[in-house]
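Researcher: Next entry in the queue.
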Amino acid sequence: MKILALTRYDRLGSSSRVRFYQYIPYLQANGATILKEPFFSDDYLQRLYVGQSVSLPDVLWSYIRRLAVLARSSSFDLVWVEKELLPMLPAGFEALLQTFKIPYVVDYDDAVFHRYDMHSNLLIRVFLKHKIDHVMRHAALVIAGNQYLADRALKAGARRVELLPSVVDVNQYVPKQNSAGLTVEVGWIGSPVTVPNLDLMRDAVNALHRETEFRIVLIGAGDADPFPNIPTTKFPWNEKRELSIGQSFDIGVMPLIDGPFERGKCGYKLVQYMAGGIPVIASPVGVNGQIVEHGINGFLAESTEDWLVALRNLINNVSERTKMGQAGRRKAEQMYNLQVTAPRLMNLLSSAIKA
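Model: Structure for this entry, 355 residues:
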């Protein structure tokens, strides 16, 4: 089985790393030959994360590279696409693949269609509103990270839609070993783009800090300082640090604004926290309500009072943190584990070739 993997990013991009790259060793070990071709480079993402403007020549070169590799697509059994072939352009090349009977599978872990149908530019909304619907319709298979994305694919007329959650290799995460008497660390992983979500818990954090001692730990927030009055430790993101979540955090949080784009997210950070054996607190948005079992592996928090109660409960109760962390680890092992989903993905890709 020869597969052309057309990802959005290189390994620095979390969506590409989680939905594609972490599966490739398993696929290769089971007989697949895979050519990986990211659209954007790591340099492109690094510029975005630090607020620099992207290089127009680099972006143009990305389109040229993608067109060049598409010219070779007929030599592969399957084209495995992340989101779309050419961002901000119509779905003509996806239609061409179908015309030339080159099967492609398209994978979604967020609501990329809202980048078009809700875009601030009227021309983009008019001309590209239904672009992703066309991409989904022409695909041999749409793989969706949650039901919100799957429902859009079905509405678009996709021939076949399968759910596959975003997962981790749980074996790489060392579970938390709680100890009483230490300062509790409330941790968050994200990027400078997602820092505004932390506003949802700011009032609760400030109020609770007048009652008890704890520390905020932020990974990937850049220069942002969302809690200026609270002791805070900030780390740059890297893959190794993600795997040590169980040693870095006591509680993992995922506040999330309730909007159309956010409802398409796949709760990956929650899965990471759970794999690290720590309890979670999350906004009840989209798939978060399925990942978090309220009162069992963490809490769902909507209002400031919800966040205050959940944080107070976990910060002041080490046995509760331990019990919920262990429940989360078990759920990650059973449902959000690469060891479970890799064989299924292999079967899905194989079946798309035979369809």
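Model: The chain has a mean pLDDT of 93.
Researcher: Noted, moving on.
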